[in-house]
Amino acid sequence: MSEFAIHIDSAFDSGNIEVRAIHGATATLAIRRDAHSDFFQWFHFRVSGAAGRELVLRITGLNAAAYPGGWEGYRACVSEDRDYWGRADTAWDPHTENGTLTITYSPESEICWFAYFAPYSMERHHDLIAQLAAEPGVIYRRLGQSLDGQPIDCLTMGDGPVQIWLQARQHPGESMAQWWMEGALDALTDPANPHGRLLREKATVHVVPNANPDGSRRGHLRTNAAGVNLNREWHDPRPDRSPEVLAIRNAMDETGVALCMDVHGDEAIPHVFIAGFEGIPGITQAQLASYHRYLAILDAQTPDFQTRAGYPIAPAGRGNLTMATNQIAERFGAVAMTLEMPFKDHNDLPCPDQGWSPERSAQLGRDCIAALAQWIMG
Ligand SMILES: [Zn+2]
């Protein structure tokens, strides 16, 4: 039976793969670039007809991907039920066909799914928004719309004077950021969660679970429908190229911002870490001390966070004000931060079966809310 060729499909929400050749249960593949852009790294596809056979999936041309350093030590995500996402055996060879990732996997089922990280669909996004909008004390607002005409959704909760903003998925391929949002929103709205209750008493929390719905649905790594990296637009967002950022920044201008977390994933670094705003021209010692206090609280809160590994810190006065974290810190005098979760694993506490996962992302969201509740008590 093994002479029958497998089938590979990707014409669905956040699907992305190009099929170059299929022979039996071996496929040669490539990743499609983000529209109007050179970025690519996100893949998401389905394989059928492979039950009981060993699949060999070769994704080629990856030295030209956005972050070639992301492939070393990376294992592809795989699911047979679209609920539990494990990891498949994966080998990286930078010297074959301009960089080839070879995934081998023997599915029990006729259909299995592969992705760069466990996908988070726009349908699940709408389920999340509908569920949360019906919760007592939660205000839903449509901040604007994307170039493809999708809504930019915002949920606001709490009665306190401190304005906190949480946003995720400016970079749509970083789907762990929206799994983080599920955990954070659960902590914020569960009546039995004391951290969420305290935070809603002391603060008003504004949550944008998906800042780039077009890139998400199109299966992009990093950009919106126009091929624009939204996290380089915060100094001057434009209606014709970055309406998503314009809508969110205008809403922030109305409320002001005391603290903002911008949630992301990092391709290369196998740790959870946070990047700050050290390079902004208007930085104050009080602002910086408040930021460091949050890092220390979160570090004590969960072993799934650390402060040793991360990005280099920008020199004084050299912060890039096109990025959300720097622009928000400068514009509002806020504590702003970019939270990065790994595509690989958090090597301080590795999980061989799943690597970094949706479940761990959601738990980190809950822990970040607990840390915020402690931070706000000063
Ligand atoms: Zn990112």
Automatic annotation (TrEMBL):
Residues 118-376 form the Peptidase M14 domain. Its cofactor is Zn(2+). CDD domains: M14_PaCCP-like. GO terms for molecular function: metallocarboxypeptidase activity; zinc ion binding. GO terms for biological process: proteolysis. InterPro entries: Cytosolic_carboxypeptidase, Pepdidase_M14_N, Peptidase_M14. This is Murein tripeptide amidase MpaA. It comes from Novosphingobium sediminicola.
